[in-house]
Design brief:
The protein has 165 residues and is α+β, with helices and mostly antiparallel strands. It has helices at 32-42, 76-99, 126-146, 151-156; strands at residues 3-10, 20-28, 51-52, 54-56, 59-60, 64-69, 111-117.
Length: 165
Amino acid sequence: MSMFIGEALVIEGSDLANVSHIDLLIGSKDGPVGVAFANALANQSAGHTNLLAVVSPNIVCKPATVMITKVTIKGSKQVIDMFGAVQAAVARGVVDSVVEGVIPKHLADDLVIVCGVYIDPKSDSHAKIYKNNYEAVKLSIKRAMTGEPKIEEIIAKKETKHPFE
């Protein structure tokens, strides 16, 4: 397959302000995910600054990951959330997925990830933002790489209530 698709939502109890919702694509640099990756970096727009996930300054994660905001960034608080807790959580979740063998290490230079992230304007805890995004990234990568959820699970849970209904 040239594209793996993952998703994860992480909420601690009823704390919707610090929720993490990750949508991601994993694929080869020379496939459709590579094209989406390049387009995300090349096509920026006001309030939707796409950026590379870095473990720390000058240390990009591998597979290289571009983060895309799923909401319009409207102020310095959301900018700090995105360029701080979220960026670190996403990058470290990607690298730990390689360390744990979820993403094969020998493919780390050949794959890229496009990662949609949600940052609630009412978020109030960098620690929770980090924790929830880290967990959601790892879970979405695991699901992408294992083809989860399987269609049987989707059918069985199709009537499950969505937390935002």
